[in-house]
Design a protein that fits this description.
By secondary structure, this protein is an all-beta fold. The strands form four sheets. Strands 1-2-3-4 form a four-stranded antiparallel beta sheet, with no helix packed on it. Strands 5-6-7-8 form a four-stranded antiparallel beta sheet, with no helix packed on it. About 7% of the residues have low confidence.
Amino acid sequence: SKSNLKAPVWEKVNVIDQKSTIVFNKSGVLAYSYDGKIYQKKNSSDSDNSRWLSGQDWLPAYSNLKSHSVATIFEAADGVLFLGTGKSLSKSTDNAQSWKVVQKVWVEDMVESDGVLLATGQKGIMRSTDGGENWEWVISEGGVGIAIEQIQHGFAAIAYN
């Protein structure tokens, strides 16, 4: 909690599903599982907004989503949401009210730096320079994209080959 503290402060938070993955986006903390359940942790309603509610206060998020294979959720710097599933990468510009499929490949991980998006996929590492509308494979020799990280105005990537 609170990365600007000199000494780290840890608080135990119970998650809805033991197989959940936690992601920290600008809009808050999300938990999702591969079976398509997505929850958002809500701030307490009292005056101390730095405290989180109890573990039972994860509320369903993006309930209009019909995916059953959530692999990643990513929020870009401009607030655009991306959802990677076992079959596609979708984009929402209206806070998840509607989704547009922008790639028909599975996506496991995404990062952003200086307006460039990178994602891991079934053919390697792909890149978008137009806000996620169009994607091109930039590392595709031999296989699957394993991991990507943003580092000092660039990227580091691992592909299986």
